[in-house]
Every structure is written in structure tokens, then in C-alpha cells.
Write a structure and sequence with these properties.
This protein has 330 residues and is mainly β. It has one domain: Glycosyl hydrolase domain, family 43 (Tachylectin-2, Chain A), CATH 2.115.10. 4% of the residues lie in helices and 45% in strands. Strands 6-10-9-8-7 form a five-stranded mixed beta sheet, with no helix packed on it. The longest helix has 10 residues. The protein binds beta-D-mannopyranose. Beta-D-mannopyranose (BMA) binds next to strand 7.
Length: 330
């Protein structure tokens, strides 16, 4: 029994024990990929997607790229977190103001439960027909009706991930502004009303070998007795192209812009065929976790090669020990 995760028990968490002989602190599901690339006939691929516990099972918002190559968000439901029924129709957002742009293209969703409400943050094309992405935001209570709020920031921004509770009385989000000369550091922002955002603070810059080009927050941070456990992706530019891996940091509970521990090695890098070969090769991109506060089990959903969804597992106490044993912050 572990009391390290501060949160709910999740006895039905999808889970596979560490395979015999494996010494890694995070290990893959031997059945990977758990979601294949064609969830329905019009789909080209499903990856970089977010799930949460919902009713007696799980619900999710999935990045589905269609055979037109249009990037859309689709709802899915599952009894066990592994076998998913993904809707063939994209989410039709209900705009909370007429002035909010019609949805055109959206990708890489994160879903965060705050109180009784679920919030979806995603990379949203700001103006229809343009290529100016920023963080789109919507909420749902039932995974049927999704109410779209104002975009959170100006372009260019991606990888918006909300904290699961208010910090200092405000909603809080990590995001990754970028431009050509500054491809990406993680920042923290707060909002009293999910409309106006401020108190922007720098959290971290690319700082290891495997993440030196750019980084971005991954799943909703997990509250633990040691701080907020954040998985993040990092990109290494290589001779052939880019390599997306993921690692972890622990952020201060009260001041989450302070990095307390920073694990130097990556946790998962593209070493399996389904991570190395696909529409975009060499990509492991986490967007969601499930966790059981009772056992400390964590299940990580990650997109593989921009094509399929894969799953990895870890145990919180072992992971925190590993992060501290390999801490870049001395
Ligand atoms: C990023 C995003 C992700 C994608 C990754 C690798 O810029 O577009 O959706 O997984 O590139 O292609």
C-alpha cells in the first residue's frame, strides 16, 4: 500500500505487472499498441489522446487524423481502459460566445477533472484557414455536450495541460509558447475565470541531451506527497529528423513553477517498432495517465509514431526514487 499519490483509489485501473527480466522503472504493455490505427473506416490514425475515469469505466478525447489528414477530436468510452469504442463523429463544440472561432483543426488533447467537471485543452487553430495554433479549452459534464471557452493564449502555443485543482485560488495551466528561434520551454499561467490568464511564470527549458530541442507538458500533473509529478515530452534533433521521448520532473506543490527534482535520463524513448515506424517515425508522446492512490500504480497513455496509442506502467514510489536517484538538481 502506498500513500504517496494524493487522490482517489482506482481499483479498476488498467494494469500489467513489470515483465520478468525487465529492470526499467517504466515498462510497456506487451499488447502494445492498445489502440490500432483504424478505429473506424474514415480514420487514418489515432494517437496523442487523453482519458479519465468516468462512471463505472473510462471516457476519453482522442486525436483522430482522418484519411483526409484533417486532425479532429473524437469522444470514446471504455469499460476497461484498454478496449475503446471511439465515435465516428467528431466533437461538435457548443460555443459559449458567438465570437469564438468555429472549430477547424484540433489535436493533442488533455483532459483534466476539476471538481465534478472535465476540462479539455488542445492545440487549436486560432483562425479558420490560418496556421496559428494556440490552446483551445472546453468543458463537459457528460462527454456528450462540450462547451467551448475562449482560447487561453495568443499564438503560438501548444501542449496546454491543466492542474487538477486550483492553485492559490486560481485555475492553473502549463503550456508551451514557441516561435522559430525559441522552439519551446514550459510556462505556468493562472486564471480566476478561465477567460483571463496571467501570473505567467517560466517552469523549465530544454536541458538534457534527449530533450535539447524542445519540451512540452504531457498528462495532467499527479499530486503526490513529494510535489506535482509531471511527465513531459522532449525532442532531440537528429541527423535524420527528430526523436520524441518522455521523462519526468517533480514540481513544488504550492509554487508549481519551481522544479524540485528533474530526472536526467528519459523514461521511455522510441525503441519499439510501433514507436519507430508510422506516419511520423520516432515518437513517444504522452497525453494522459490513470492512477490508483491505494497502490501507487500509474498507467500512461502515449501516442506512438503519430499513428497508434500505446500504454506504459510504473509505480509511484519506485518512480519518485528513480527521479531522485537521477536528479539533475543537486
Ligand atoms: C508535434 C505535434 C505532435 C506530434 C509531434 C511529432 O509538433 O504535432 O502532435 O506527435 O509533433 O510529429
Amino acid at each position: 500500500m502506498s500513500k504517496t499519490i494524493i487522490g482517489d483509489a482506482l481499483p479498476n485501473i488498467p494494469w500489467k505487472a513489470r515483465p520478468e527480466g525487465c529492470t526499467d522503472v517504466v515498462w510497456r504493455d506487451p499488447e502494445n499498441p492498445i489502440i490500432g490505427r483504424f478505429p473506424f473506416p474514415a480514420a487514418n490514425s489515432v494517437f496523442n489522446s487523453a482519458v479519465v475515469p468516468f462512471k463505472d469505466g473510462f471516457a476519453g478525447v482522442f486525436r483522430v487524423d482522418l484519411k483526409t489528414r484533417k486532425q479532429e477530436l473524437h469522444v470514446g468510452f471504455s469499460k476497461d481502459g484498454i478496449n475503446w469504442d471511439i465515435s465516428e463523429k467528431r466533437i461538435e463544440f457548443i460555443k459559449t460566445k458567438d465570437e469564438i472561432d468555429d472549430f477547424s483543426v484540433g489535436y493533442d488533447p488533455r483532459v483534466t477533472k476539476i471538481g465534478d467537471r472535465y476540462y479539455v485543452a488542445w492545440c487549436n487553430m486560432f483562425a479558420v484557414g490560418s496556421n496559428t495554433c494556440t490552446i483551445g479549452l472546453a468543458y463537459t459534464d457528460d462527454f456528450e455536450n462540450f462547451y467551448q471557452l475562449e482560447n487561453c493564449f495568443l499564438p503560438y502555443n501548444r501542449n496546454g495541460t491543466m492542474f487538477p485543482e486550483k492553485i492559490n485560488g486560481n485555475f492553473a495551466m502549463l503550456s508551451r509558447p514557441f516561435n522559430d528561434s525559441e522552439p519551446g520551454c514550459i510556462f505556468y499561467s493562472e486564471s480566476p475565470d478561465l477567460n483571463f490568464w496571467g501570473n505567467h511564470r517560466h517552469v523549465m527549458s530544454p536541458s538534457t541531451y534527449w530533450d535539447w530541442l524542445k519540451i512540452g507538458a504531457g498528462p495532467t500533473p499527479i499530486k503526490t506527497t513529494e510535489g506535482w509529478l509531471l511527465f513531459y515530452h522532449g525532442v532531440q534533433k537528429t541527423c535524420s529528423d527528430a526523436c520524441y521521448s518522455f521523462g519526468a520532473v517533480i514540481l513544488d506543490l504550492e509554487k508549481p513553477w519551481i522544479v524540485k527534482h528533474h530526472c536526467e535520463p528519459y523514461l521511455i524513448a522510441p525503441t519499439e517498432l510501433y514507436e519507430q515506424v508510422g506516419d511520423v517515425s520516432m515518437v513517444c508522446f504522452p497525453c494522459a495517465t490513470l492512477q490508483d492512490a491505494e497502490t501507487g500504480r500509474i498507467s500512461i497513455y502515449y501516442g506512438a509514431a503519430d499513428t497508434v496509442v500505446a500504454m506504459a506502467y510504473t509505480q509511484v514510489d519506485e518512480l519518485i526514487k528513480y527521479i531522485k536517484d537521477n536528479d539533475m538538481i543537486k
